[in-house]
């Protein structure tokens, strides 16, 4: 996988591309899924998706339930400064855009991080803002050829269900995704799940 230091200055717009909250599978569109194993980590699912233009895209889906009101959960996720609290420390992730950030359609946010030790810049844009139901961020520039992350929030009988759907494309395609990108994303989302459990614990029962 070829990754280089990126300076965010251009504009790239991508599109956005739920079933089993406990499965992680890889399923290519144009060929058999055989050989693309799965992970037993709960709540995360990744699969190869369709082609975006001439790019092979992949999809990762994650669900997590919280015993708290939807507006409270949406408020947490909608604050860019909270990203640092749920991102693994090994990424050395930092928001570069001055706070406070007013979230709405068209808002752009700059970040810095290290991916496998390589310093990178990332710029995202909010392309959908529908509180407290959903928002979408896309990568304008960064390490991916395409990245669109849809965050959806639903009421449940016992709180809130948060659904993440990420559609992405990477240099090198299928093999790079299988051996490098998907394992890294898997680790990031698993760390995120654990961090969120600490931040939003189950209420004590009498």
Please describe what this structure looks like.
This protein is α+β, with helices and mostly antiparallel strands and 206 residues long. The chain has two helices and ten strands. A hairpin with a 2-residue loop joins β9 and β10. The protein starts with 23 loop residues before the first strand and ends in a 7-residue tail after the last helix. Residues 1-7 and 10-42 have low confidence and may be disordered.
Helix and strand topology:
Layout: E1 24-25, E2 38-39, E3 44-52, E4 55-66, H1 70-77, E5 94-95, E6 108-115, E7 118-130, E8 134-141, E9 146-156, E10 159-169, H2 173-199
Antiparallel strand pairs: 1-2, 3-4, 4-10, 5-6, 6-7, 7-8, 8-9, 9-10
**CATH architecture designation:** 2-Layer Sandwich
Average pLDDT confidence is 80
Question: Distance N terminus to C terminus?
Answer: 52 Å
CATH topology: Alpha-D-Glucose-1,6-Bisphosphate, Chain A, domain 4
Which parts are unreliable, with pLDDT below 50 for 5 consecutive residues or more? 1-7, 10-42
In percent, how much strand structure appears in the residues?
A: 35-45%
Q: CATH top level?
A: Alpha Beta
Q: What structural class results from the helix and strand content?
A: alpha+beta
Summed up, the domain count is 1
Taking the sheet with the most strands, its summary is: 8 strands, antiparallel
Q: What is the global morphology?
A: globular
| CA gyration radius, whole angstroms | 17 Å
Helical proportion, percent range: 10-25%
Total strand segments: 10
Please provide the ordered H/E string of secondary-structure elements.
Answer: EEEEHEEEEEEH
Task: Name the strands of the widest sheet in spatial order.
Answer: 3-4-10-9-8-7-6-5
What's the CATH H-level superfamily name?
START domain
Number of helices: 2
């Amino acid at each position: 996988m070829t990754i280089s230091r990126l300076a965010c200055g251009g504009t790239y717009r991508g599109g956005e591309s739920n079933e089993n909250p406990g499965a992680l599978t890889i399923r290519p569109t144009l060929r058999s899924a055989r050989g693309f194993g799965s992970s037993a980590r709960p709540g995360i699912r990744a699969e190869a998706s369709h082609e975006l233009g001439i790019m092979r895209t992949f999809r990762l889906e994650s669900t997590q339930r919280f015993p708290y009101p939807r507006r409270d959960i949406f408020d947490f996720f909608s604050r860019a400064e909270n990203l640092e609290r749920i991102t693994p420390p090994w990424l050395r992730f930092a928001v570069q855009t001055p706070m406070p950030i007013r979230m709405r359609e068209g808002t752009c946010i700059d970040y810095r991080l290290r991916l496998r030790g390589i310093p990178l810049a990332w710029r995202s844009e909010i392309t959908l803002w529908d509180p407290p139901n959903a928002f979408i961020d896309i990568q304008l520039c960064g390490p991916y050829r395409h990245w669109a992350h849809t965050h959806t929030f639903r009421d449940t009988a016992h709180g809130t269900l948060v659904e993440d759907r990420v559609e992405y494309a990477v240099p090198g395609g299928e093999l790079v995704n299988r051996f490098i990108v998907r394992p890294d994303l898997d680790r990031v989302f698993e760390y995120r799940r654990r961090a969120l459990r600490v931040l939003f614990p189950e209420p004590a029962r009498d």
